[in-house]
Design brief:
Layout (H helix, E strand, L loop, with lengths): L2 H35 L3
Keywords: Membrane, Transmembrane, Transmembrane helix
Length: about 40
């Protein structure tokens, strides 16, 4: 395993974490928005 592989793997890991965080944030805001909208 050379340095290039680990650099690439780390970059992909950070990208995956960022994507999961972005999706989670969007879902959280969507859920909160739906909750606030449905108050009768």
């Amino acid at each position: 395993m050379e340095y290039g592989f680990w650099s690439h793997a780390l970059l992909w890991l950070i990208g995956a974490m960022a994507l999961v965080g972005a999706v989670g944030t969007v879902l959280a805001f969507w859920g909160l928005g739906r909750d606030a909208y449905r108050k009768d």
